[in-house]
Specification:
alpha+beta, Heat Shock Protein 90, single chain, 10 helices
Amino acid sequence: MELLGYLKRQRLLVLVLIGIIVVFAAVFSLYDLPLEAIGYAAALCFALGAGVFVLGFCRFRSRHRELLQLMKRTEEPVLPLPPAGDLLEEDYQALLTAVAAQRTRLLARERDKLEDMTDYYTLWAHQIKTPIAAASLLLQENPPPREPLEAELLKISQYVEMVLGYLRLDSASTDYVFQDTDLNALVRQAVRKFARLFILKHITLDFQELHRTVLTDGKWLSFVVEQLLSNALKYTPAGGTVRIYGDGETLVIADTGIGIREEDLPRIFEKGFTGYNGRAGQKSTGIGLYLCRRVSEQLHHDLTIVSRPGQGTIARLDLSRKKRTME
């Protein structure tokens, strides 16, 4: 196999040598030179060629076996490649090193993604147990109270939508369809979805009509609005108020909840960051605002949040953006 492989590698050179021999033989025969001279010259050429062939084959076999040994060590981050024999081998080794480095980066990235996803799902599983347990307790009552049960089911639905958004956001198949969207209808739909929680927590809704359309992806903008509204309800105590209104081209969702500490504000959009208030009540997965910021960036909207502990939080979603070709 090794000899056959070497012959294939040197086939062009072999053909050239055969051609040279034929040319020399033809020239010698045309000039009627003695056969002994032709034979002696041919023997010398053959001996020289055989020596070069054997030397080249030995180097070829040694390199081949060395590479076979390296193939068994492909799991190592850095392979000790043999010294390059020529410029072409240097190019191949440089290419192999670049591919290996890219592979290492991709593996590290995938490992980080897997660790992040595992951490998130672990936290998500613990968080979703709370409304499931609450719903189970409510079902033990006779008859089960309808409105509190619906509220717990809504929380479960929110957790499910959040994890689906987390999966879809980085999916290669995720596409955004930008079209003129009725902002008032979109916000009203979100408010209706959380109507039970407003009633159960005795939270007042102050909603001012939003007479405008916005060029955006309605499905993903609804996701952001629902997450912001869910946070406002989650951290606003009974008897509080949630306000929804427009400020120029900015949608504002303000609450009178527990607020966010000043030292936590710079990190609220980081993945997995829950802050003091989120940890205190074990209410937060640390993923909602991270997803809101990521989606807002994809939609070319700007999301900012200001807050004061004990006074409430104001989320401002700037919907102004350059016009794009509608799809």
